[in-house]
Amino acid sequence: MATKPLQAVVLPTPVPPASANGVANGERAGGGDTRAVIIVHGQGQEGIVSVFADVLGKPFRLATSFKSVADAGYGTVIGLRADDAKVDIHERDRSRIVAIHAHCVNLGMPPDTELSNECDYEFLYAEKPFFRRDLSRFISFTLGQINHHEALITKPRTYFISTTFPDVRTALPNLDILTVGSDAVELRVDLLKEPLPDGTFSSVPSISYVGEQVMLLRQRTELPIIFTTRCTKENGKFPMENPQLFYEYLYRAVQWGVEYIDVELWLPEEIRRTLYEKRGNSKIISAFHDFSGTFRWPSERAQEIFRDSKRYGDIVKMITVINDVSENYEL
């Protein structure tokens, strides 16, 4: 009999810890984040602040430092120039302020790394065309006003399509057709190929390139996105020598407001725990793969993997190769 892949998805309900970025993980969508919203913008990009304010239904004003809005601004969206924000962004009270780095990709330069790392979230956008819908979706999700996951877990089965392209632009013209019947779209980050000036491709796509790919995908679909950095051992292309590299990309996906983050079980526990604690409103898919053909569902090892997976995951994904269809029923 032909070898068949088997995917099992289980939805545990672990006790949610307090989030490091101020969002109470596991809460139902409702009023959302009540902290003051600070938009960090580039030189000459003040206009994006008014758009954020309009979407949130609040007035806005510009400020010169985080300190100047420490005790005000809860009913107002505040704009800060990038250079001004750098002065005291490290000292802000995260429990009272949510900082969003708004970066325009048309500027021809990648986002400022310091601001990307220090802000709670990052919104990448193009001036032309500008998709207000994408901003609304980003704000609603990151600030906890909507929750796609609650709707999906009520379905008896869910499906997703994986975009295994070196550049998502290849899939965009037919994405509406390709995603018919799907509940989510997976972005295989490890399969992206960033072109270099010399005509070759980067061995690992840069974070700025990946960010633009997420932006482009979000512009063309309202389905939740699954952000995946599959390693070489598990039929992917992301190098395993540097686990910290996985953390940098996966946490940036949280900051970009990606709905689902695929975190492989082999990663060090400290990285998996930190991602889980800092996941904001994103959901962690704890992923395990075994292609040996010897894995058995009715085994203590399977139980151990499940227990280890659910410790730092909202969803447990266990994928193995079976040798006979009857093994499906052992699960």
Walk me through what this model shows.
By secondary structure, the protein is an alpha/beta fold. It has two domains: 4-27 and 147-330, Aldolase class I (TIM Barrel), CATH 3.20.20.70; 36-142, P-loop containing nucleotide triphosphate hydrolases (Rossmann fold, 3-Layer(aba) Sandwich). It is 29% helix and 21% strand. Helix 6 (175-178) links the parallel strand 7 and strand 8. Helix 1 packs across helix 4. The longest helix is centred in the middle third of the chain and has 14 residues, at 207-220. It is globular, with a radius of gyration of 21 Å. Residues 1-30 have low confidence and may be disordered.
pLDDT averaged over residues: 88
Secondary-structure element order, N to C: EEHEEHEHEHHEHEHEHEHEHEH
- Poorly predicted residue ranges: 1-30
Radius of gyration, rounded?
A: 21 Å
CATH superfamily of the largest domain, by name, is: Aldolase class I
- Cross-sheet strand order for the largest sheet: 1-12-11-10-9-8-7
